[in-house]
Amino acid sequence: INKLLGCAVNEFSYEADSIGHGLFSWYLVQGLMGMADVPADNTVTFDELKSWTQKRVAAASRGKQNPVIEARDGNAVFATVTPDSRAAALALQSGKAYNGMMASRGMGTEDTLITAKLQTYIDQYNRFLLAAKLYEGDSSCLAVIYNLSKLDHSAAKEVLQGLQNHLAEALETRSQLVLNEYLKGKSEQPPANVYLRASADAQLADSLLPYGDPRKKNDQVMAHFHEAFSYIRYDNYEKFPLAEQLLRKALLLEDRAAYLYVTMSYLMSYQNKHDSAIYYAQKAEEIIPTWTVPKNILGNIYHDIAQNETALRYHRAVLKMDSSYAWSYNNLGTVMLDMGRIAEAEKYFLQSLDVKKSTGKERLNRDWAISYGNLGAIYKERGLNAIAEKYFYNRQPL
After folding, report:
1. What is the pLDDT of residue 280?
2. Whose C-alpha in 84, 154, 205, 255 is 20 to 30 A from the C-alpha of 288?
3. 3-state class of 295 per DSSP?
4. What is the pLDDT of residues 112-154, one digit of tens each?
């Protein structure tokens, strides 16, 4: 029998106006939507849900509410996760104000009364939060926390603890939003400075949490990953050794995070270390067999080393999993072109365009430009210059 209880028998169960729910319900649902999937392997096990919910509720209630969650099989999958469901959870979390007072029901210690003076700190904190001024300069959420830390009485210390936890969650959310864009596997990623800021966000979140808080590990993993990928994204070759060090540190902390292996594969591939690139992509594939990104990477690596039949096998496997994945049609066309199979290459390039037009997915100019350029090259090779010029013309403004 599985047990999900909002608090222990001698405790209150708290609600917060800022989220419009009880703390237990709020974090439980957030966990099921993907936030509890800390290694990002697209599943939420009972143990992951338990750990996520208990940590978050205890921190948000300043230790006054501790959910009781028990399961016969902690490794049982409780929910499956997609980047879209995780994005929805992150959107719900973004910009949630801090509520100093919590309503309660049950038997336990009443919440701390907030004095008018302490409320001014909370109000100021929430204004900066709404303006997304989390830690930049003297007019920021972090500055409010610093000023509050100078007050030396128990009520102020409790509010300080609550604000520190709240800011840590806000920073984690902002960092995770960037990570989620990466997990979607788009060909066009946010710029390098976005990843660098996400690293700073995760580092600050880690520093705000108390020593021994188990959430610190994931913040450290995200900080290492984001900094490493900022160097890869910017093609900062001089920083590639540092990027590798950071990714290895992240893997020591969390060796079940498939996205870390994918990133290491990218890094190895860019340095023409193809054997290592294949190893890391296959590790990611083992962890999440249903994720198309590692298979697509493997197809590209095998194409780079002229093992074209193996490359075709991987790209076709991606399309069996997701027939709307336009990049695999493009990749198949490119491999066919290098093999001299022009008619098949043309077919796949045209299919890539058809998929982009019909799926309604976010338009990325780079994707369209590559498809138009590929088709233009084919028609030029055939001597069909008028048709080739049409595709090259369509590519220019992109």
Report:
1. 98
2. 205
3. helix
4. 557 788 999 999 999 999 999 999 899 999 999 999 999 988 8
**Residues ≥6 apart with Cβ < 8 Å to 166:** 60, 98, 125
Q: Are residues 87 and 118 in the same domain?
A: no
CB atoms within 10 A of CB 137: 8
C-alpha count within 13 angstroms, C-beta hemisphere, residue 166: 28
Q: How far is the C-alpha of 16 from the C-alpha of 12, rounded, in Å?
A: 13
Tell me which amino acid residue 255 is: D
Tell me which residue range forms the domain holding 167.
110-235
Residue 118 domain-assigned (yes or no): yes
Let me know whether 158 and 202 are in one domain. Answer: yes
What tokens were used for 373? 């350029």
Q: Are strands 3-5 and 68-70 parallel, antiparallel or unpaired?
A: antiparallel
| Per-residue model confidence (pLDDT) at position 190 | 87
What is residue 395's predicted lDDT score, i.e. its pLDDT? 80
Boundary residue ending a domain (278, 296, 318)? 318
Q: Percentage of the chain surpassing pLDDT 90?
A: 57
- Listed residues 277, 292, 318: the one ending a domain: 318
Give the confidence band of 45 by pLDDT, cuts at 50, 70, 90. very high
Non-local CB neighbours of 26 within 8 Å, separated by 6+ positions: 16, 19
In a domain, 303, yes or no: yes
82 within some domain = yes
Q: Which pLDDT tens digit goes with each residue over 278-318?
A: 999 999 999 999 999 999 999 999 999 999 999 999 999 99
| Cα–Cα distance measured from residue 325 to residue 284, given in angstroms and rounded to the nearest whole number | 19
Residues 304 and 329 in one domain: no
- Angle at the Cα of 234 from the Cα atoms of 230 and 238, rounded to 5 degrees: 90
How many domains are there within the chain? 4
Query: Do residues 56 and 3 both lie within one domain?
Result: yes
**CATH value at residue 308:** 1.25.40.10
The 3-state secondary structure of 53-81, one letter per residue: HHHHHHHHCCCCCCCEEECCCCCCEEEEC
Residue 398: what pLDDT?
Answer: 56
pTM across the whole model: 0.88
